[in-house]
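> call design_seq(struct)
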């Protein structure tokens, strides 16, 4: 006895809207890209041939080497001037100078840091061209933080006159055995 198997019922396939459009769009874009590649290849190929011919013609002229030397020399001068401008500094001491205003208590401080690799010796700080402060040395990376009333004017007898606490710093000059630097402090 054999068993009879009924075939599955037939279902009617339904097409979804826009089915197959992706493949058609991809094929169209592929054809467009191929045509664009052929067109640009032809245009750039002609430009390359004309450019190569112009270059060959230019190189056969006797002026070519002279103009090339002029161009390279000008380029070298521009590079040298740019490097000189970038490397030049008026701050040979590597000094960092800032004015720090403190609200409570109301005072103004001058911050000076030795940003160089050398020790500053015989340091004289001059505030606004008249008030001075002196110290023996400032080590590399070290700083001096002074309220403006620590600067002074000394008379011939050695008596000190100190500035007011609310003095507005304008300039600070740093003189050391290693060099000189002047900073503008006003805003």
């Amino acid at each position: 006895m054999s068993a009879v198997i009924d075939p599955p019922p037939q279902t009617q396939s339904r097409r979804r809207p826009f089915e197959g459009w992706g493949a058609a769009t991809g094929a169209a874009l592929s054809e467009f890209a191929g045509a664009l590649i052929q067109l640009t290849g032809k245009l750039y190929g002609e430009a390359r041939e004309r450019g190569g011919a112009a270059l060959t013609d230019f190189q056969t002229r006797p002026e070519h080497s002279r103009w090339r030397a002029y161009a390279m020399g000008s380029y070298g001068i521009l590079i040298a001037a740019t490097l000189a401008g970038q490397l030049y500094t008026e701050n040979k001491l590597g000094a960092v100078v800032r004015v720090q205003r403190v609200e409570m208590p109301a005072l103004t401080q001058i911050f000076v840091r030795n940003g160089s690799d050398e020790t500053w010796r015989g340091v004289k700080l001059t505030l606004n061209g008249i008030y001075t402060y002196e110290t023996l040395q400032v080590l590399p990376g070290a700083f001096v933080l002074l309220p403006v009333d620590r600067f002074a004017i000394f008379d011939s007898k050695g008596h000190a006159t100190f500035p007011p606490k609310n003095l507005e710093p304008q300039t600070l000059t740093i003189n050391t055995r290693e060099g000189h630097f002047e900073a503008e402090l006003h805003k």
